Amino acid sequence: MLDVRRLRLxxxxxxxxxxxxxxxxxxxxxxxxxxxxxxxxxxxxxxLLERTGRRVRLTPAGQNLVRHAExxxxxxxxxxxxxxxxxxxxxxxxxxxxxxxxxxxIVPAALTTLARRHPALEPMVSETDPAAxxxxxxxxxxxxxxxHAYDFVPPPREPGLSVEPLYVEAMYLxxxxxxPGALAAPGSVPLPPVPVPSGDADQAAVLRARADAPWITATxxxxxxxxxxxxxxxxxxxxxxxxxxxxxxxxxxxxxAGQGVAVVPQLGIAAQGGPEVLLTRLPMSRRTRIxxxxxxxxxxxxxxxxxxxxxxxxxxxAGSRASQ
Length: 324
Known about the structure:
The protein is 41% helix and 23% strand. By secondary structure, the protein is of the alpha/beta class. It is globular and about 75 Å long.
């Protein structure tokens, strides 16, 4: 009989690529991971891994077993959800991953609703970049998470995970206000309040006109950084990055100080006050989804948090789910 814990290790190796990465993610030593995978091979009765020096890759039999492991682990999630449904009342820890703008704009109201309906449930929020969510969910470090994707950064298919749409945001080019007496750029308006111009700007032309400006992006390795770089490259240039900042409030403060231009999502500007910047709406969007392990969507705690999130979506975004 194959051991499900060893199947999980094989699945993680397939996604993470190295035994060292599996060991680090699951808090094992590399030798312990290798030992358990060796036991799994003996249980299977044929080689599952090919070792070349320090590198390891899955054999065709190993790849096929990973596909079965995904199905087995999904059924176990469904079984856990059924057992949780049979118990009376929700209790225990719910580990939630979220990115900063959603943590500020959506999550607090959702947690308030969750506490009122299920006071014995203990939500624990960790800010997690969407690029790291898949590994965290599969490793069991998170139970549910908010993730986002941009038009220029489509989400990769993640085996073992499921997603549900939550809302869609507009995207804006933010740039410093004009000097006194200067003419504002066509389609640009001051902040606050958040503008909703009629019609979308010609995105390539708008971005290309700022090709020589310094740019402010998120830090490399994040989806927000990739979005800005790829949007500019689609317009025909690579941005000259001056500052790398992940918090949009700080990004807007730097823009207002004349330090560069940036692309920001609707929730990144919706609650900001302070110095003015110019915003031009772009015909691109950021789509936010709820992610969880396949089979866990029916778990009462995950479903309850999802329902609370949907109620917490601001009115201006509440009608945007269909476009995902």
